[in-house]
Amino acid sequence: MTAQTETAGTPGTAGRAPETSGKVTIVGAGPGAADLLTFRAARAIAEADIVVWAASLVREEVLEHAREDAEVLDSASMSLEDVIAVYERAAREGLRVARVHSGDPALWGGTQEQVDRCAELGVEVEIVPGVSSFSAVAAIAGRELTIPEVAQSVILTRLGGGKTPMPPGEEVREFARHGTTMAVFLSAARSGQLAVELLEGGYPTDTPVVIAHQATWPEELVLRCTVGTLEETVKEHRLWKHTLFLVGPALSASGTRSHLYHPGHFHGHRRARPEARRALRAAREVRGARGQAGEQAAGQSAGQTGREAAGRE
C-alpha cells in the first residue's frame, strides 16, 4: 500500500484539484452591434491577455476594447480542442482569457463544455451575460413579447433535425400547442418544416411572425409575415442563416392594461387608491366569471362530442 504524502504547510490537500490559476471570462457580446456590449463585457475584454472571438458572429468593433498587446485569436477556425489548449496555457502561465461569444452565453453557445473543462484544469471562470437576439429583435420590432391576457410566456427553441438532436417532447409542434410567444433560433434553412410544425401545433395561419436576419448589423433585414406565409417569405429573401423568428399573437395584439402601474395596485413603494382598488377587484371578478363560464362551455362541448361518438359506435 502506497502512503499519500502532503506538502508541508498545506495539510489536507492530497488528492485535491490543483489550485486555480489563470482566468477565463466567457463574454456575451450581444447580437452584433458593438454598442450593445455591456460595461462588464467591455471591461473583461480590456483586462484580457488573450481574446478569443467569433469573427463570423461578432462585430470587429468589440476588439477596440482589447489592449494593444493582447493576443487576438479568431475562433471561427478553431475547434473546441484548440480553444481548450488556450485555456491550458492560461492555467500554466496565469493568464486572463476573454472568450467572446455572440448573443448570450446561456443560449446555444457551447458554454457548458468549456466551463466543465476549465473546472478540470483549475481555471477560474466568469460568465458575462449578453443581449440575446430575441430581445434585440423585439426591440427593433417595437413589441413587448408578454402582453397581459394575450401571452405571458416566451418559449426559446429551435427546430429539430439539425446537427444537435432535440430531446423527446421538445419539438416545435409541441411547444406551439401553448399558443404563446415563441422565439425560434437556428431554423431558417428548414423554413418549410418550421411552418408545418407551427401549424400542426395549433397556430392559426394568420398568426403574426417577425423574421429578423443579421439583427443590429448593417445588413439587418426585418420582415413581417404570418405563419401561413413564413416559408415563402424566407425563400423569397434567400435566408438560411443568422435568422431569428418571433411567432405569436403578442406581436400584433394590444392586450389590456398592466396591473403593475394601475392606481388600484399596491406594492412596497406605492399605496393603492381605494376607489381604483375596488374597480380593479370588480374587473378581476368579471374576468374570473367569464373564464369559468368558458371552461364549463368547453367541458359541455367535449362531453357532448364524446356522447355522440359513443352513440355512433
From TrEMBL:
Residues 262-272 have a biased composition (Basic residues). InterPro entries: 4pyrrol_Mease, 4pyrrol_Methylase_sf, 4pyrrole_Mease_sub1, 4pyrrole_Mease_sub2, Cbl_synth_CobM/CibF, Siro_Cobalamin_biosynth. One of its GO terms (biological process) is cobalamin biosynthetic process. Residues 1-10 have a biased composition (Polar residues). Residues 1-23, 262-313 are annotated as: Disordered. It comes from the Bacteria. GO terms for molecular function: precorrin-4 C11-methyltransferase activity. Pfam families: TP_methylase. Keywords: Cobalamin biosynthesis, Methyltransferase, S-adenosyl-L-methionine, Transferase. Residues 23-230 form the Tetrapyrrole methylase domain. This is Precorrin-4/cobalt-precorrin-4 C11-methyltransferase. It comes from Streptomyces radiopugnans.
